[in-house]
Amino acid sequence: xxxxxxxxxxxxxxxxxxxxxxxxxxxxxxxxxxxxxxxxxxxxxxxxxxxxxxxxxxxxxxxxxxxxxxxxxxxxxxxxxxxxxxxxxxxxxxxxxxxxxxxxxxxxxxxxxxxxxxxxxxxxxxxxxxxxxxxxxxxxxxxxxxxxxxxxxxxxxxxxxxxxx
Length: 165
Prior knowledge:
Shape: elongated
Number of strands: 2
Mean pLDDT: 78
Helix content: 40-55%
Largest sheet: 2 strands, antiparallel
Radius of gyration: 28 Å
Order of helices and strands: HHHEEHHH
Structural class: mainly alpha
């Protein structure tokens, strides 16, 4: 038997059915139950692969039309679990000790992102004191009115990320 690479658009459920059918193929002639189950698997694979192909075609057309919401919804329908990155099960603290308790793991992730996004910088506070904050040409101070914010928000499209505001 040759092991062809699986099509990229097949879901993990369909691939499991293919594997089950492959294992049952040599046994199908031994009794009628195996033959029936093999035939059932053939029909299921054909049905599932048709669904998977339709979803992939839907993704491609949505991509051509730049409909990102449809793309993400369709990808979620595919339920491709085996190709996704595995979740992190082992977390170590700063000293290298493996954490087991879920609360300790959450706390460690919090510390990690705190240090990542809020680094301790060695800046001279005198530099900030010398800067003129909120001033434009002369003595006018820059203030944002609530009305300006509401107008900007109302101009945004629904269910779209703002590119240039």
